[in-house]
Design goal:
- The chain has 133 residues and is an alpha+beta fold.
- It has one domain (2-114).
- It has 4 helices and 3 strands.
- Strand 2 (46-54) and strand 3 (60-64) form a beta hairpin.
- Helix 1 packs antiparallel against helix 3 (67-113).
- The longest helix has 47 residues, at 67-113.
- It is elongated and about 85 Å long.
- The structure holds zinc ion.
- Zinc ion binds at residues 32-33, 35, 38, 40, 46.
């Protein structure tokens, strides 16, 4: 239990600033501008970088990024993933803690009543009855 608490606080210390999360992906493309006679019409397209993000309802939004903002956007996207990973890991730790605490409650009751095993059935039912009174 102590080890779970420690790794949970270690995870939180390593997280990037929450205000710098950015959902989406940074996409690089070569685009043709469409101007007749431009070198891109026959040769390589113009490099373009943008942030692409899918929104609710399946719509998506693109924000083109000048070179000076590419790194910030990439960092934001990395921060977003770091937070999600941490949420999943902390959630797994909290499930484990919940299991341990449930066991502790179960064995304490078991000692009083001299048996174990029917806690999941009697626990919630008792609580529900009290709630209705
Ligand atoms: Zn062009």
């Amino acid at each position: 239990m102590k080890r779970s608490l420690e790794s949970r606080s270690r995870l939180l210390k390593r997280l990037p600033p929450f205000e710098e999360v950015l959902r989406g992906s940074v996409v690089r493309r070569l685009l043709r501008c469409g101007k007749p006679g431009c070198r891109c019409a026959t040769g390589e397209g113009h490099p373009a970088v943008y942030l692409s993000v899918t929104l609710a309802g399946g719509r998506s939004e693109q924000i083109s990024l000048p070179a000076s903002l590419v790194r910030r956007a990439e960092q934001g996207v990395a921060n977003y993933h770091a937070w999600w990973e941490a949420i999943e890991k902390v959630s797994a730790i909290n499930r484990e803690l919940l299991r341990l605490e449930r066991q502790a409650v179960g064995s304490r009751r078991g000692e009083q009543r001299g048996r174990q095993g029917d806690e999941p059935r009697t626990g919630p039912a008792r609580r529900r009855r009290r709630g209705m009174a």
